[in-house]
Structures are given as C-alpha cells and as structure tokens.
C-alpha cells in the first residue's frame, strides 16, 4: 500500500477541504482528515444522523486504537488513478493502493513511461505530471482498483461524494470493511519475509537480522538489504529470480567469471546489478526511466557498501559503452523496440539476458528480433515467465 505521488495543486481547484467546509454542517466536521460523523449537539439545530451515519459514529466510538476502515472501489473510469488518490489523501485517507483490475488475466495492462532520446532528467520530471490535467484525465488502467484506508470515525460515503464532486464524476460504488486494531508496522513487516533465490542470494529488509553463517541446509548464500515496495525488484517476481539465477551461473565460476562491467537496463531497485557485484563483477551500471527508482537504487547501493561500484542513470545520461554482460528485464514489446540499443551495448562474444517475457509467443517474438546479432539462444522458465540468454556474434 502506498500514498499517491504528489500532483500539481492546480488540479485540486477548488481544494477539497474548502469544498467540504462549504457544504457540510450540523453533524459533521471537516479538515484534512475527512468527513467525520458525530451525534447532533443538543440545541444546535442540526439534523439527526441517518441510520448509516449513526452506525458509523457508534462504531467509531467503540473502535480500538489501531482500527481502521478498509474501503474497496473502482476508480471512476475517466479519472486518472493518481488524481483520484490525491483527492482521497487530501480528504483524509491514511493510504491509497492502486492495482490493475485485470492483473493475472489476458486483460492485464502493463504500463511504463517512454523516455525519448535526448530528454534530460529535469524534462522528464516536468513532463510526467503534465500528462494528467483536469481536462485530460487518462486512467492508469482501464479498470483501476483501489484499496483505501480511513480512520474508523470517517463518513466514507460523504467523503467519496465530495471527492467525486471535485473530480466532476459520479461517486463510485464501494464496500467497507472494519479492520480490528493491530500493530500495522509489525503486520507489514511480517508480510515481508526474507527472500532466497535458488540458493545463490538472500534478499533481506531492514528489520531482518542478517544471520550470517550456517543455515538448515549449510552455509547461507550472500545477502542484499533492500527497502521493500519502493521500486520494482525485491526478489519476489519470477523475472527477477530468473535474471539473478542467470547472472549467478555466468559470473560465479561461469564463463564470465571476473567480468569487468555489466549493464542492467531497466534496473529498478538495482537488485540484479547488486547481485552481479556480489557474484564477482567489478562494476555495474543501471539504466532506468523512473527518476524515483534511480534514487532508491542509489540508496540501496550505499546501504550495501556498493556506491563506489554502481552508477544509476536515465537513458539520456548513459555513456554508450560495450559490456561483457547486459541484462534487460522490462516487457517483451519494449525489448523488441530497444533491440538496436541493447544489441549495441553487448561486446562481441558477450552475453545478453532478456526477461519480462511471458509465454512461448512472446519468447519467439523477442528471439526473432535479436537473431540477426546473436546466437546460442537458451531459455529458462519459471511460472510462465522466461529469461532468454544469447551470445553476441563476433
């Protein structure tokens, strides 16, 4: 779960808090913490609460510390999910989580931002927010599902009505679940167990003790410490695991042992690049289109003592260079589009690892695109995902 990234405040005119204050009276108060129901004060002339509001008010009075309302809804179809999230956060949401309603099905819609050649970091940061304006609201996904947390005394229906009024939309249908009190920090941490990848690497998070030494199956593999959920690549996804295993087989006693430098194109959190450094590569370069992911990967490099051997840049900032090993874990369609760039980065006789590829059809399409410059194609599979390895023709 995460709060939406900030967007220009001009998108929130009139501000939600002002609108709420102007239309709500009697039995509710408003600030940046949402519409809160309360019984009318004797003699104030306010209307008696509706049965629904009375139930919410009573539930709030009895709720334990740490309890909250979990609201599930579909984002209004013509409203960008980030914009809708910002409205809800301004209305007092504790968090907002967005997901693709079609995930795991043929209707799933991968998303990414294109980074045109020559575009600087500053230009990218200026452009991304500008792609969403009140007059041109494009949904993140055609079916964006949200989970939103509110304090237990918030009138969810009134809050959504007023948020919809700001967006100029019909309020979405929603369902509410009252979650009992719990230690949410401990709950989140318990959901993030250490990740072990094929016996060659462990991914730990800040609250995990690094139990170096002997495990139940013998010596423990080397470990990386990452901040979870901040950028793609914490070791759980099959494509990340496939790439790490491929890098390990090449560098840890394989034909690229002692590799001088590698390129991780689409580096995310940097986990594949850091794994390569652990496995013996001397230097790693990460290329990433998301400025926030670049910031995260640089912080991870510092946390793991690799800042002097790792560089993370936007595509426009990358110095063209040939590498013995290039890894790209993106999307099949994007890999095909990037074929000229990726091929030019692999030195003669070097190795290319490609993932983010689902199923036989995508694998065949990617191999066909790279076949003119590469040979010795091999595939490794996990849960329907594939990593393709190939050698650059000499």
TrEMBL record:
<dbReference type="GO" id="GO:0016279">
    <property type="term" value="F:protein-lysine N-methyltransferase activity"/>
</dbReference>
<dbReference type="InterPro" id="IPR029063">
    <property type="entry name" value="SAM-dependent_MTases_sf"/>
</dbReference>
<comment type="similarity">
    <text>Belongs to the methyltransferase superfamily. ETFBKMT family.</text>
</comment>
<keyword id="KW-0732">Signal</keyword>
<protein>
    <recommendedName>
        <fullName>ETFB lysine methyltransferase</fullName>
    </recommendedName>
</protein>
<keyword id="KW-0808">Transferase</keyword>
<dbReference type="Pfam" id="PF06325">
    <property type="entry name" value="PrmA"/>
</dbReference>
<dbReference type="GO" id="GO:0032259">
    <property type="term" value="P:methylation"/>
</dbReference>
<dbReference type="InterPro" id="IPR050078">
    <property type="entry name" value="Ribosomal_L11_MeTrfase_PrmA"/>
</dbReference>
<keyword id="KW-0489">Methyltransferase</keyword>
<feature type="signal peptide">
    <location>
        <begin position="1"/>
        <end position="26"/>
    </location>
</feature>
């Amino acid at each position: 779960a995460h709060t939406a990234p900030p967007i220009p405040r001009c998108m929130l005119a009139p501000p939600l808090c002002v609108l709420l204050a102007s239309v709500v009276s009697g039995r509710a108060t408003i600030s940046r913490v949402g519409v809160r129901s309360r019984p009318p004060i004797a003699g104030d002339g306010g209307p008696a609460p509706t049965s629904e509001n009375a139930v919410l008010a009573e539930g709030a009075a009895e709720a334990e510390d740490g309890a909250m309302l979990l609201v599930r809804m579909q984002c209004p179809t013509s409203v960008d999910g980030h914009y809708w999230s910002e409205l809800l956060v301004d209305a007092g949401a504790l968090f907002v989580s967005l997901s693709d309603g079609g995930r795991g099905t043929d209707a799933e819609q991968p998303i990414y931002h294109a980074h045109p050649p020559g575009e600087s970091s500053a230009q990218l940061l200026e452009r991304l927010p500008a792609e969403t304006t009140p007059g041109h609201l494009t949904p993140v996904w055609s079916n964006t599902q949200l989970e939103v947390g509110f304090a237990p005394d918030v009138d969810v229906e009134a809050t959504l009505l007023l948020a919809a009024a700001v967006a100029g939309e019909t309020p979405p249908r929603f369902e509410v679940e009252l979650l009992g009190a719990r230690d949410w920090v401990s709950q989140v941490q318990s959901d993030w167990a250490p990740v072990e990848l094929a016996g060659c690497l462990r991914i730990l998070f800040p609250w995990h003790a690094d139990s170096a030494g002997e495990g139940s199956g013998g010596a423990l593999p080397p470990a990386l410490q990452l901040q979870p959920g901040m950028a793609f690549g914490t070791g759980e996804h099959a494509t990340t695991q496939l790439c790490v295993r491929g890098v390990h087989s090449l560098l840890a006693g394989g034909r690229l042992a002692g590799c001088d430098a590698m390129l991780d194109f689409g580096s995310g959190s940097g986990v594949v690049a850091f794994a390569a450094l652990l496995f013996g590569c001397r230097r790693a370069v990460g290329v990433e289109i998301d400025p926030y992911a670049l910031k995260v990967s640089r912080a991870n490099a510092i946390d793991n003592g690799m800042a002097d051997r790792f560089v993370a840049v936007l595509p426009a900032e990358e110095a063209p260079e040939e590498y013995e090993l290039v890894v790209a874990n993106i999307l099949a369609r994007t890999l095909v589009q990037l074929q000229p760039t990726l091929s030019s980065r692999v030195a003669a006789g070097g190795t290319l690892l490609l993932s983010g590829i689902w199923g036989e059809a995508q694998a065949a399409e990617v191999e066909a695109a790279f076949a003119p410059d590469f040979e010795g194609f091999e595939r490794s599979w996990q849960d329907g995902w594939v990593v393709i390895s190939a050698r650059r023709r000499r």
